Amino acid sequence: MSTQTGLSRRQFLQATAGGAALLGLAGCVAPVALPVQNSSGAGAAAKAVDEIRVLVVGDPFQFALEKIIGSFTEQTGVKVNLESLSYDALNARLAASFVSGSSDADVVTVDQMWNSQYYDNQWIVALDDFIKRDADINLGDFIPEVLYSLNTWRGHVVTLPIAAYAQGTMYRTDVFDTLGLTPPPKNAASAGDWTWDTYMDQVKQINGQKVGDTSIYGTVVCGSQPVPIVHMYSQLGASYGARWFKQFPAAPWDFTPTINSPENLAALKAYKSLYEMSPAEAINYVWFDAGTRFSQGDIGMFYWWTPYFYLVKNSGYMTGEKAKTIDLYDVGMLPKAAGRDPLVSLGGWSLGMPSSTDKKQAAWDFIKWATGAAAQKQMALVPDYNYQFSDFARQSLYQDAEIKAIYPYLDVQLELMHQGDGKLVRPPMPIYTSMEGIYGLNLNQVISGAVTPEVGLQTTDTLFTNVLKGNFMVPYQMESYDDTLANTEKLLASLGA
Amino acid sequence: MNRSGVARWYPYLFILPSFVLLLALIIYPTFFVISNSFYFWNLQTSAVPLQYVGLGNFELVFTVTPFVDSLRNTLVIAFAGTFVEFWLGMGIALLLSTGVRGIGIFRALLIMPITIAPVVTGFLFRYMYYREGGLITWLLLQIGVPVSERGLLGEESTALASVLFADVWQWTPFAALLLYAGLLSISDEVREAARVDGAAGWALFWRITLPLVRPTAAIFIMLRFMQLFNMFDLVLVLTRGGPGTSSRTLAYNLYLEGLVNYNIGIAAAMTVLIVIIVTLLINVYIRFAFSDWDW
Which of the ends of chain B has fewer CB neighbours closer than 10 A, N or C? Predict the structure, then answer.
């Protein structure tokens, strides 16, 4: 009997090469386009559902939401599988599940900067039909500036806000009393002279002074690149009149960069000065580091997102342990640039509905509940962690006496919301994340002293141009939408607001 | 087909699962990446590739990402890290081979850093590098080494070295254990013969021990170099590539472009460039280190 196999090495190698070539051809073929989502599913018959999956980000609202989630189950009989992720992990997971077409969750947290990507790619559905159908959503109760900044894209309401943030000032009352400084104003009517120049002067006067046994820094900033520094700096830049692009979000969209402007240069020099009056390690500070440093007692004044109005009551993030400065601080309006109208950055988190979910009615029920006034009030009244939620997007909650007794600064916060325009401060254009990465890197290099403000802005401008051209955004060839607050108010009126 | 006809296919059937895995997990993704490197595909604007752009993505790798800075940092980490870990590991291995009393406990303790996940190591060192109250900062100040007010991780001149130090702490024991195994394979008779001929100390090490442990050393150097070339987790936890780009590595740069900016086309082009660079370096190394090996 022959012991040789019949297949020669040449034949085997030929078969292998053929298989590899076939797979290679498969790899070179463009993927099949994702199926088009035809409708939001608002009119579809409700499927019997006993559980929904909700993916949220680990911001303060998540802690309060966890405590009251049982209410939703009691009301609807639907169990909620709530999972919390960090910002980067959430975005990565959502993108992966959307691209693969797999249904990873029924309700997802959406950052306003992701709206364009998620909606244009049909990864989330518009909520217009659901809103029109359910008048009890009480759309008119939402702050219009918030809905405009966080929840609309190309003339649709694509998400609803679960936690709305503005930016405001926090300061040490004892420091101001000791140094005889005028505190920041608490309403727009008395804020005529409250400018960034005044703010800077006060920070300079505070810096290095001793109050009690403590040497006080004038302020604290976030220096960590790319995202934290952009969140904080973009507020200052926008106040000074800096704009990222020639025309956006008003139509026609023109993404020619205007980041290297005299206004932005002035703002960047001011921010660098603020860093020089901050703890040196602020170069690496992310969002919570700045707030934690203030609550540790050696910072005179700083500006930041409004959740810090309550977060600085604690010595650490969501620890519940009261800070030693808990009775020694107050809040005020954000400064404006001299000769300009006030402009406040709006941000926060919203809930959206993936197009891949087959539980759309249950998902909508959850979104409506979680963004509703009753649930939001419940979240505000959660005593754990020392009452850590007042990020309301609904106007009625700002008038609630029971809530105001716990969060006495709500009047200030509401005024800040009404001065807000999130789309102007951080433009939610399609490749925002790439732009933010470049901007944050260069801002960090400026405040660390590696480059001058002039060089930093020039480099940013050059890189912006390269990225925008490389992504076919300049010139912009797709359809623009005249995305303004006025048009948003018309949209809301058409939906029953 | 008769029984012997079927039987001749058995060897191929047995290796078929491995072969399918090889094709599916390595060959297909490789072609997929190479293909995408020539297409404009940004998930922020489109769920599918939009158009052929030739070498446009490769140009964008250099014009919109700090690729050159990342490459420089990566080469510094790979070469310096391999060098330091090898020589420190060799020193520890030589100590282990002395057979001093109690060395067994030390040998057992050496394994511990390797068992910790790199991310956990990163967090440990992040706390130790704090400007106020960090252990390493305190130690340096105690011995008179000045530390910037921004801390070791906040200063461009020390950030990369701080990342590397954390890696050296974690992986030098691996070098020590591997080289120790190599030292154990050297016959005592060879050393004894060298001593009889008058070799001692450094001469004994350089002319006898090191050449004989060379095969183990060569493998270690190649493995660690490739691992250091792919450094990502420590950078993510300790510095996120900052301050500026002073500690950004190629792997972190790739992560930012592909998984944060979702620019699949540029990330694919970057991957191709990295593969070319690594292939060139490893081939040069193999020619140099394994030139006299009988394969």
Answer: C
